[in-house]
TrEMBL record:
Keywords: Coiled coil. Residues 292-302 have a biased composition (Low complexity). It comes from Rhizopus stolonifer. This is Uncharacterized protein. Residues 292-319 are annotated as: Disordered. Residues 26-67 form a coiled coil.
Length: 319
């Protein structure tokens, strides 16, 4: 009976040591999970910052669209004046001027028409600048979505690592007959899935709606502008007003272009630097997690061997 009691006592001691080791491993796993959550929060902050930059780029595109609408208004005024001119031409009687005077007026009109042709060319050039700026903004928006996709991929990788730790805890519960809590791991996985789905949904839906609508509107306006420019023809009495309006729009477009180029270059450089730093941190974090995982496994095996050795020594002494 004493020997049986001693055996039971030794078995109980071994179970106690095993439970302590398991609790230590679980504590380490919880600490690692908390560290990964902090890393995820930093990644979320970076993603939010990129989304704010995308909103700023959309504002620039809207401003370019407003300028294009103003140019369209000028073209509509020209069409109205042409229609008025044509209607008046049908009801105008013979002019009292002599032939020489009419020739001089015709020459003056041709000169004015040549000047207006130059204004028309400048208007076409402004339209082309606006199209290039819109294309550059759309390309930069696409680049931002690619960068956001990389950050989301990093989130998924960390989520998989957290899931493996949850499965390890469940395996310990099953193999050792314990009831260790795994609520923290489940909450972490749920939070990651929620943020990931929300970010992907907002980014994809909003970008698709905006780009599709923007592209359709731009192509329609550009086509209308081309058709209108082919019909460009005004009278000498309207040239000065049109020149003044076109010059104002030109100045507005040049200021907008200068401001947009400066902001875009600085923003793009800053985002590229931030993304490189974030990629380096994610790589270091993955290396550290792999090392910790290997170290945890090695420590657990070493501790088990030491326990078995101490048990055998104790049994030898008793014998």
């Amino acid at each position: 009976d004493v020997k049986i009691g001693n055996v039971r006592l030794e078995s109980l001691k071994e179970d106690t040591l095993k439970a302590k080791r398991i609790r230590t491993d679980v504590s380490k796993l919880n600490q690692q999970t908390e560290a990964k959550m902090n890393s995820l929060n930093r990644i979320e902050d970076r993603i939010n910052h990129l989304q704010q930059e995308r909103i700023k780029l959309n504002d620039v595109i809207q401003q370019a669209n407003l300028t294009r609408d103003q140019i369209q208004q000028i073209i509509n005024k020209r069409d109205f004046f042409l229609a008025t001119y044509n209607s008046l031409k049908d009801i105008v009687n013979d002019r009292p001027e002599t032939t020489e005077e009419l020739k001089e007026m015709l020459n003056n009109h041709r000169q004015s028409e040549g000047q207006m042709s130059g204004e028309r060319n400048r208007l076409v050039e402004q339209r082309m600048k606006t199209e290039r700026k819109l294309k550059a903004a759309q390309d930069e928006l696409s680049t931002k979505h690619t960068q956001m996709g990389k950050l989301m991929a990093a989130k998924e990788q960390i989520e998989e690592q957290i899931q493996r730790r949850i499965e390890m805890i469940e395996s310990i519960n099953t193999s050792e007959g314990l009831s260790l809590p795994i609520n923290d791991g489940q909450k972490t996985a749920s939070l990651l899935r929620k943020h990931m789905l929300k970010s992907q949904h907002m980014s994809i839906v909003e970008s698709k709606k905006h780009l599709v609508k923007q592209t359709e509107n731009d192509m329609s306006q550009i086509e209308n502008l081309k058709n209108k420019l082919l019909e460009f023809n005004v009278s000498s009495a309207e040239i000065e007003d049109a020149k003044e309006a076109v010059e104002k729009e030109k100045n507005t477009l040049e200021q907008l272009e200068a401001s947009s180029n400066t902001v875009s270059r600085e923003t793009l450089t800053q985002k590229e630097r931030m993304l490189r730093e974030l990629d380096e941190k994610i790589t270091d974090l993955n290396d550290e997690m792999n090392k910790l995982s290997k170290l945890s496994d090695s420590s657990a095996k070493l501790s088990l061997k030491r326990t078995e050795l101490e048990s055998k020594k104790a049994t030898t002494k008793r014998l």
